[in-house]
Amino acid sequence: xxxxxxxxxxxxxxxxxxxVQQLIPNSRVFDAEKVGETLMDITPGLPATDNFQHWxxxxxxxxxxxxxxxxxxxxxxVMPMTVLVEQYWREISSGLAQHAIAVRHFVLHxxxxxxxxxxxxxxxxxxxxxxxxxxxxxxAEAARTWLHTAGEVVETTxxxxxxxxxxIAEALKRCEEQPAxxxxxx
Length: 186
What we know:
The chain is of the alpha/beta class. The chain has helices at residues 13-23, 33-40, 58-73, 86-98, 112-120, 130-133, 136-150, 161-177; strands at residues 2-6, 27-29, 76-80, 103-109, 152-155. It has a five-stranded parallel beta sheet with strand order 2-3-1-4-5, with helices on both faces. Helix 1 crosses helix 8 and helix 3 (58-73) runs parallel beside helix 4. The radius of gyration is 16 Å and the shape is globular.
C-alpha cells in the first residue's frame, strides 16, 4: 500500500510523513522528489522546465520506483509529494493501480495565511522561499477544482504534525476494520 501525502509547501507533508511512518508497522518513507532530483542530474540536462514533474519520464519512474521498493520490502510506503496537476496525479494513481498497489491519498490542507507563516518561518529551506511561495495559488486552484475530491483532506491549520499523523493513522486503521466491500467514509 501507498499512503500519499499531498498538499502544497508548508502544509506539513515531510514532517508528517516521518511521524506517520512511525505509526504504521512495516512502513517506509519514499520521497518521490528524489526521482526528480535524479532527472535533474542528467548531463547534458533535460529540456528546461520550472518543475521536474513536467518531464514525461518523472511520473512513470515514480510508479516504477515505488513498485520495485514494495516488491522488495513489502509493507507500506509513505510518500510525501505535492502533485497539483490533475493529469499527473491520474497518471501516477492509474500506474500504481495497474500494479495492484492500493493508494490512500491524503491532502494536507492549511489556509493561505497559515501556509505563508509556515513558509516564512521555515528554518530548513529558509524563510519565504520564492519556489515554495509560487505554489500557493496553483495549490488553491487545484484544491478548488479537483484535489480535495481526489483525496482525503486533513485540515492542518490548527494541528501539529503529530496530530495530523495520528489522524491519518486512525483513518487507515478504520479502513482496515471495514468489512470487505464497504467503502470507508471520508
